[in-house]
Design a protein that fits this description.
heterodimer, A: 202 residues, alpha+beta, Thrombin, subunit H, 2 domains, elongated, B: 335 residues, Rossmann fold, 14 helices, globular
Chain lengths: 202, 335
């Protein structure tokens, strides 16, 4: 078991890269606490607060909304990530004084990337693996397009139906065109899985 | 150093993670090769957890690898049992004997020697899960190496870990007497040690000026580690990106260029075949999974014709090299 005082692993080069903003006592200025990132998942982040002694009763912050500010010494734009404090606990000897888990609220991929860059000594190849995995997941697939076609198809069908009841022969002609286009949009959604399987099989 | 630059006969199917379909792919690949008119022998290399025979519909194998390892049977050829599929012989794995799961170095050498003498054009070696030295050694000694995985995140990570472990195991054997390379190699593999050798390329760059001879040897060792990637249980086009991710990470961090050999579609019929103890390719006339395996088999035949380094190209290692990795690192000169 490790012993001795906890030493932070991240060199902050004298500039706090990551700060947590939490609401203080009622009416007071929000607390802005320098923190270090320990771990990161798709929705959660684990942080350590190296100097929590000035702030008492951390337990009461459980469930509180907060803001994680990712700042960059090189002057890059500050990224703010909305989050909720899921847990906070004090560590023993040799452990970080205070650790806390945050549940992030819809973090952007850029924000995750910036946080990921602050992780202390990640295995570079595993980081590379997950970066590529995220990149592949992020790549907009055809599914969005097909979904939009499907919705448009439905709208066109309803529009065509409305025109059918309008009575005018000219409009009725238009309604047939709308129905045809609408049917194509919906058919695309239905046919796609079969087509996809065929492509995979090739 | 003896080299074996003949056609590749022994192909290993590994991947680190359990439950990704290594045995099923081995079986399907065997059937596909047999359908091409090739004589194939499957070896269940999952020592300690053998089940390839069950997938082949053999409930009570009368002879297994255990008989060969314990010298109850002298020739490996005599452990081959005929199966329901014409052209395919099977060597069942050993899972009854304590210790069979951990063959000694001498046993491994004897096994590999006799695999080369088996009366078959292709020998497919179904690897067990995990990254034990035995698994890695059998994988590395095979002329044809197939890393199998699914698109699941856990499988991706394990597949990369398996490939990296196999490569590092090979390099630690190839450079067993070179303390400097070993130290740099394994210190570089550890996170947070403060040195700059996070990629194999960093090592190559280091030796480029310091010792071009070593750089050439390292480059050759990486070149010899020729690897094929197969993704199993593909359900969508997105799953086909998985081998590209692995290939990209391998290229950037390990300096190897794995080749994507193909993919196998997810096939619910496979599960039904397993329950009925019927080899799955025989269960249905047109199995979705078999379509991909047929194509992989064709590629395997083509690749087998290309000369590559076989197991006998590996440096002869001493018994001491079966020492745990940390022992080798602490006392590199011992091995």
């Amino acid at each position: 078991m490790a012993s001795g005082p906890f030493k932070p692993e991240v060199k902050t080069t004298g500039y706090p890269c990551l700060r947590l903003e939490v609401a203080g006592q009622e009416g007071a200025t929000p607390l802005l606490i320098p923190v270090l990132i320990r771990n990161l998942s798709m929705g959660g982040v684990t942080l350590t607060v190296t100097n929590p002694w000035g702030m008492a009763d951390w337990e009461r912050y459980r469930g509180a909304d907060c803001l994680l500010r990712v700042e960059d010494p090189q002057g890059q734009e500050v990224v703010n990530i909305r989050a909720k404090i899921a847990w906070a606990k004090f560590g023993g000897q040799g452990q970080p004084p205070l650790s806390m888990g945050l549940q992030m609220v819809k973090p952007s991929s850029e924000a995750l990337q910036r946080l990921s860059n602050l992780l202390p000594h990640p295995s570079q190849d595993i980081k590379g693996l997950w970066d590529r995995y995220d990149q592949v997941r992020k790549t907009p697939g055809q599914s969005h397009l097909v979904h939009h076609c499907y919705i448009t198809g439905l709208v066109l069908l309803v529009g065509g139906l409305a025109l059918q009841f309008s009575g005018s022969p000219a409009y009725k002609m238009c309604s047939w065109v709308l129905w045809l286009l609408g049917s194509l949009g919906i058919a695309g959604k239905i046919i796609r899985p079969f087509w996809q399987n065929r492509v995979s099989g090739d | 150093m003896p080299t074996n630059m003949s056609r590749i006969k022994l192909w290993s199917i590994g991947g680190g993670k359990g439950g990704i379909g290594k045995s099923l792919v081995t079986l399907g690949l065997g059937v596909a090769l047999a359908r091409l008119g090739k004589k194939v022998i499957l070896i269940d290399g999952d020592l300690g957890g053998a089940n390839l025979h069950t997938l082949m519909g053999v409930r009570y194998p009368h002879v297994t690898l255990e008989h060969f390892l314990t010298k109850k049977v002298t020739r490996l050829e005599d452990t081959v049992i005929e199966t329901a599929v014409e052209g395919i012989g099977l060597i069942c794995g050993a899972d009854d004997l304590m210790g069979a799961a951990n063959p000694t170095f001498a046993q491994k050498i004897r096994l590999l020697d006799q695999i080369e003498q088996l009366p078959a054009q292709y020998v497919l070696f179904d690897q067990g899960a995990g990254t034990s030295f035995n698994t890695l050694d059998f994988f590395n000694f095979s002329g044809g190496k197939i890393a199998l995985f699914t698109s699941q995140t856990t499988s991706l990570q394990n597949a990369y870990g398996f490939i990296k472990s196999a490569l590092y195991r090979k390099l630690s054997r190839d450079f067993a007497k070179d303390d400097e390379v070993l130290q740099l190699l394994y210190q570089g593999g550890e996170a947070g040690n403060g040195n700059n050798y996070t990629k194999i390329q960093d090592l190559l760059d280091h030796f480029k000026d310091a010792n071009p001879g070593k750089q050439a040897r390292l480059t050759q060792a990486l070149w010899d580690f020729h690897l094929f990637l197969v993704v199993n249980m593909v359900k969508s086009n997105a799953d086909l990106k998985a081998p590209e991710i692995i290939r990209s990470v391998c290229r950037d961090f390990l300096n190897i260029q794995p080749e994507i050999m193909g993919h196998v579609l997810f096939d619910p019929g496979v599960e039904a075949a397993i329950s009925q103890m019927v080899p799955f390719p025989l269960h249905r006339k047109k199995s979705k999974a078999m379509m991909g395996l047929d194509q992989i088999a064709l590629k395997l035949v083509t690749q087998s014709r290309l000369p590559r380094m076989g197991w006998s190209g590996a440096r002869e290692a001493s018994e001491e090299e079966d020492l745990p990795l940390d022992t080798i690192l602490a006392h590199p000169s011992r091995s």
